Amino acid sequence: MTTSTTDSTAAERQSTAALIEGIATAARRAALTLATLPTDRKNAFLESLAIAIEARGEMLIAENRNDLEAGAAAGLSNALLDRLAITPERISGMAQGLREVAALPDPVGEIIEKNERPNGLRIEKVRVPIGVIGIIYESRPNVTVDCAALCFKSGNASILRGGKESFHSNRALAALITDTLQKHDLDTAAVQLVPTTDRSALNTLLSLDEHIDCIIPRGGEGLIRFVAENSRIPVIKHYKGVCCVYVDDEADAALAEKIVVNAKVQRPSVCNAAENWFVHADRAHDLLPAIGRALTDQGVELRADKRAEAFLRKANVPVKPATEEDYHEEYLDLILAVKVVDSIDDAVDAVNRYGSKHSDAIVTCNEANARKFMAEVDSATVYWNASTRFTDGYEFGLGAEIGISTDKIHARGPMGLRELTTYKFQIYGSGQIK
Amino acid sequence: MTTSTTDSTAAERQSTAALIEGIATAARRAALTLATLPTDRKNAFLESLAIAIEARGEMLIAENRNDLEAGAAAGLSNALLDRLAITPERISGMAQGLREVAALPDPVGEIIEKNERPNGLRIEKVRVPIGVIGIIYESRPNVTVDCAALCFKSGNASILRGGKESFHSNRALAALITDTLQKHDLDTAAVQLVPTTDRSALNTLLSLDEHIDCIIPRGGEGLIRFVAENSRIPVIKHYKGVCCVYVDDEADAALAEKIVVNAKVQRPSVCNAAENWFVHADRAHDLLPAIGRALTDQGVELRADKRAEAFLRKANVPVKPATEEDYHEEYLDLILAVKVVDSIDDAVDAVNRYGSKHSDAIVTCNEANARKFMAEVDSATVYWNASTRFTDGYEFGLGAEIGISTDKIHARGPMGLRELTTYKFQIYGSGQIK
Fold first, then answer.
1. Nearest residue of A to residue B407, measured between CA atoms
2. Neighboring chain B residues of A213 at a CB cutoff of 8 Å
3. What residues of chain B score a pLDDT lower than 70?
4. pTM (2 decimals)?
5. How many domains does chain B divide into?
């Protein structure tokens, strides 16, 4: 029995590997034609897909019900079930998202730089698609449509690997995508969903560096670490958002309160919400009690170092002692770690030590301090007198967002259509030899 | 005995790992100060290093002699010993290279894009160093100085891991770099050489993704594959240069001959030399014999498919039959694989199948065919009517070259100073909250 089970598992794994290799090979082939597909044909496909999703809303909701029932039976939390649900509003949202992507300018073909060399060679650096992009994501089914649309518009073939919780929903959406590709005489391998929840499929996918050019994981830190540690393909990612707000000794009190409270409270469950609050020692006496009170009034639990704790206690603001780990923690909740720092240099050090290089802000009226902070904090996005909550492709004017990167290679910060492209050098000669 | 040997090896490995972690941690610290070092201080360091290398030439040649003697004893080929040698001319070359890098514009701080959002936020996308860059290279000691200079000028800390063949030479050069950093009151961790040839040092280095942002391997395909397969850090690389020249049915005969011969013969040992020659079937009768003869007259061995072989034999041009593997081979020698193709589409397919996505050329007078080839060939650099031999940072006007990438993430083609940078978003607010 043991032997036969092992054989069967190995055979299953082998058949999954063959399946995934077939998908990746087909995606590479599709990518070559997508790379030169005219903009109007790409936009027509996106518009048709929007119409198909609207028209087949009832089917989508029915398929989604299978996932919701399985999820409830498996004991998923209400929050997770909510993320998983497809509703009429979310169907409209997906369709609208597709139309917005269609309306965005096509990044492909843009001449980024050009120059003519002394020998007469004309060199053009031209924006082109990356090729084949793998998206690994968790429960929200609308990610299937969002990512397919952004990859497609930027001329990339995509391989979508959703979570098992949304398997039926993703499969139904993928069927609509395939139908629409066919209707438009396009290679159906331009957008492919991995049709199995077998974990070995993911391992195979991450090994196919000949066929897949880039992996973008979206989800919790555990998923992203698994992908980063097991991928032979370049991964663009952020593990977590431990964002810091530093309130300088020359901060305006009202501005500081507004920004710290907004960065923490407005939507604590997202990656650009603040998790650390650093205060200059010279303003600990007035700003800690005032802003601390404003935060606890909105339900925030403060976890403070010894010096901050003393000021807060003296003012009767509820506070708990912080451990060193608290400053590394992504709470995604109404909890804030607080620390007193002695100088702008110490503030920069604290942000670089504890933050996750995502989004950090300084509140100050002192321009020199602001410029120092913005230059020396080694993060994708640094703010002077604004909330960290603006780190987002739409807020930055990209018109869309496929993810946020805290990597330094290729793309950093919010990623839109352009960040799904690379370039090639096209060189025009008249017989130049070396 | 076995136990004690194992213990000792494990202990050695542990001590190497601690050494490398110390180097990487120090590099991260140095990177934070390098990121804001003014241009004139960077240039002053580079000029001092040039002077130091010129002044200590005799010492460098003496240290290099140790490597040459060990290399000769180990049976290195004359070609390898030549690559390894430091001569008075190469010392001048290193010094001149440093002065050229000093003269290049500093990419750091450039505002790549800016825009003001409707809410008044001013968003600036600013060019910044990547951080810590690991360079893994083989025998040529001048790479130590070249890479140190390019990383330094672009504000990056570098960790240099040279080959064991050039250990003494690299150590002597690194000592001059350290001295010069000290004289300029700079963190000596800004440029560090890995001071051991222990292979486990490389494995440790490739695992430190918290401290090292990017790895650039330079050397043979074996080294590069080892690095790519064992690295947790993003790697920018090209494995090999299998460059293709396609001669279209509408090619000018004289132009085609000039380009094919130059791409193959002018310096066959480099990555941008041609390894494959594809000829349109309609011109096989005249171009294969004429250009084939010109090539064999210059000592080139032709390996041809059956159709090409027939035309060549008929004209008494020496030729051998090609295997399928020949078209994937990077000969780096006076050997050329030849194939007849039936159309521009087949030519594009052949280049995408056999080439290594490095540099490929079409020779034609037909603009539509040229544009199709340049759009559909999925390579870093595509040429119309010019030799592939121009793929090079200097030829492209970058002023320098740290390497050539066939990856699609971050940088593609020749990489200069700019390709050693990333960007950050600096955002100026006046109290904006979400």
1. A213
2. 408-409
3. 1-8
4. 0.94
5. 2
